Amino acid sequence: MARRKRKGGSDLEAEALRTPATHPDLIQQCNMSYWNRYNSGGSSSKTTGSSIAPYNASLSILRLKKIGFHKKVSDSSVQTEINLWYITKNDSTKYREGNLPSFGQYVDSKALVKAVNVSKLKEDEIQHPIRALFAGLTIPGQILGQQLAFSGLPNLVNFAKAYPVGWGGLSQGMAVFDLSIGAFRGLPSGYVFLDLSPKVPFQQFLNHPDFEKMRKREREATRIALTIIATIHQECEASTPFWSQDARTQPEVQLENFRDVDIDLLDDKQLLMLWEAYFLESSKVWYQMNFGKKLVKMIKSIPHVDDIHERVTSLAEPAPTQEYSMSRQVRLGTTFTSLVGIYNRRRTLRVLHFHATPLLDRRLVAIIARSCPNLQMLGIYDCPNLHIGDSICLLDLIHEINSTRAPGQTRIEAFDFYPRYNAGPILDGTKPGEDASTYGVSWKSVRIDAQQRGVFAILLQVVLKAKRMNLKLLLDKDSAFMTYLSRLPFPPLQILGFLDGLYRYLDLIKARSTNKDAVKQALYDVLRPLRSGLESLDKDWPSYYLHEMDKNVMFCSSCGYEYLQDFFAQSAQSAQAHTRICSACTLRLWLDEESDNDKADANVIWEPYFKNWQRSEFNQDAPIHQHGQSIINLRSTETERPLPPAPQIGPNGEPVGPRYIEPLMRDNKVHKDSLQNLPDFVELFQEDIYRVVMHRARVLDARQATDTILRSFYPRDQEGIRAYKDVVPDFNSQGPSKTPKDMCLTSHNFESAALFFETLQNKSFQDQKAYRNSNQYNPTGFW
User: Are residues 123 and 270 in the same domain?
Assistant: First the structure.
């Protein structure tokens, strides 16, 4: 009788979730003594002899359903977590339809900036003994406020919503800076600093008296940007659009005509025309030097500027129901106002929270944190320039700061982090044929091989570094970071299953378990989510499980860490050993270079302050927890590659001597996480440099206004000139949909993750490849 072919590992995942029935091939090999042996107790369990019990994806899910998640991962059942994932998926759909604008945001700090004038409260509203605890100017009130802030920003928000009067009193003992008004809410005091950017509807911004100062600043910023545009347009003259075939001004044409002419043969009229052309050309060069070639090129493409102010106002202002968005000039000004407040209180601060701070990047965080000698807790939420990959360098920063503090001095004990979440554009705001979707980690879809493995490689470092430092909050079950992970459009259970396996593995290694089955199963559950959908799980038992898993490690020439090979994309695995780059570094590079929705503004604006900064410099690596060093380990910190030895020639003219092997070292850094060679905090307030960065902010505002004008002047193809939108990317949308050929290579959105999860039960890996490589139309972007 022919032997029945075993179903694929990926099939077994969904099969085990869908039904309690067990997989026949493997379960028949595992008698009940195996399950009794496994459930009898962690490190005291022993395998019989040297035999290894069968295990694969189906049994992995079956074990998860039977035993549940590790206590540090979730208290919910497997089915509950699946249901919660589908609720998140539905919320994503509502957001893209324009019905849930808050999707992807961790918290709204609006409740923390509502003014409550405690002095005007009635006596019976403040004299109750319990209410006296919330008097922020008293010692008990400041201690309570510090402890509440230490536990994370959401606790402050929940308290403020539940008890506004109590928050009005408690906040008197804090420094609450509201970026939406560019000032403190009340007098700053105490040990807590909140740097908040609450969402403000544009209608409220236009009419509420709190925003009078900001409205004046915005009007001035708009005036400056439009003056730049009008001046350049007048001095450099208009040309045909820069993307047309002959984008030249009249003076440029004249200079071209005079290029090969003997100047001595020109009459007075021709000489006058030549000198005027030279003068206009020199004006253009001057404006290019001061405002950038890109802006000058764009402004020259504007046909006329007669109604420029009205045109920009009507096109750029959001609808009354939409959110107010600061200009770059106002962002920079309010950011510096908050920096002055932090600097003045730097020696007293113990808790520091940043919420949606627009120009905050990792380098600014490092400058601030290093200057606060008593800082004990750092919280960063929804800041657009800080992505999931920055969690690694921020942990390295905390380790560096703690290691430099004297014995007995306070340490940074807690870190709460919600990286930027890319919810994608709203469907109503996209052009036909665009791929409006939620990718979470990145704004646009990227190669799933490096993205999926990269997220887990980053998460591995975060867990092992935070655990080694005994850092609070970051990895708590209900923390900001875990909430962020739960909202990523990965198939259900993929991230939680990875964490469950990792924590089990660390516990077993710590206990020096002799239960080989438990250790191997935990490690398999760590690696399975990395490979799911990317490699065949069909023959994991026995081939991969017994003969391949944990047998090969690979070195990353970018970060210097050595991982199990599953943390490298397929293309990197086949590269030369000394040139490989792990998926974590690859993904961090992609996220560093995202430029949609003003993400590149901070780099442009802050550049004059960071003249000595080099992206290739390395931070002080936070140590990896010792129980995870068989999965990842810092192999090398060397960065200077030696020259290979000179070749030696034998008497017969042939090369002799041993073959030279390139040493493994991190001389190929690709991402930009360096926090070294940064200025001191006080150096940020140099007036001459501030003028330079404010000029850059003005150029960015002028460029955005010009972009808006060109989109209105050239909405469609006309007279041989292409529509402006077809030649310049719209950073507020995600661009054209992926072609069917590319779809199988791109990262998941919620629709593709659900399709992947729900249809696994019917497909082996070969069937998956055949399906996703077929010519069927597939709107989800994965198959």
Answer: no
Contact 734, 437 (CB under 8 A): yes
Tell me, yes or no, whether 456 and 588 share the same domain: yes
Q: Where do we find the tokens 């072609």? A: 739
Quick one: 571 and 452 in the same domain?
yes
How distant, in Å, are the alpha carbons of 160, 167, 319, 476, 621 from that of 157? Answer: 5, 9, 27, 18, 34
Residue 524's DSSP bridge partners are none
Residue where one domain finishes, among candidates 412, 437, 462: 437
User: Does a structural domain hold residue 506?
Assistant: yes
Residue 1: predicted pLDDT: 40
- Rounded CA-CA distance 372/349 in Å is 7
pLDDT in tens, 480-497: 999 999 999 999 999 999
The predicted-structure confidence for 176-228, as pLDDT tens digits, reads as follows 999 999 999 989 999 999 999 999 999 999 999 999 999 999 999 999 999 99
Confidence tier at 132 by pLDDT (50, 70, 90): low
* Of residues 460, 457, 452, 455, the one with CA closest to residue 535: 452
User: What is the spatial distance between Cα 613 and Cα 604, in angstroms, rounded to a whole number?
Assistant: 14
Note the pTM of the prediction, 2 decimals: 0.88
Amino acid at 154: P
- The total of structural domains in the chain comes to 3
Rounded average pLDDT over 398-413 = 96
CA dihedral 307, 309, 312, 314 (to 10 degrees): -80
Pairing relationship of beta strands 183-184 and 175-178 according to DSSP bridges? antiparallel
Contact indicator for 419, 76 with CB cutoff of 8 Å: no
Residues 398 and 289 in one domain: no
- What phi and psi, each to the nearest 5 degrees, are found at residue 617? -70, 150
Torsion sign (Cα): 528, 532, 536, 537: positive
Of 437, 453, 486, which residue constitutes the final position of a domain?
437
Regarding whether 351 and 335 lie in a shared domain, the answer is: no
The residue whose two tokens read 């140590």 is 623
Query: Which secondary-structure segment (H or E) carries 355?
Result: strand 351-355
If we measure between CA atoms, which residue out of 450, 471, 452 comes closest to residue 462? 471
Q: 102 phi and psi, to 5 degrees?
A: -85, 0
Q: Are 398 and 412 in contact (CB under 8 A)?
A: yes
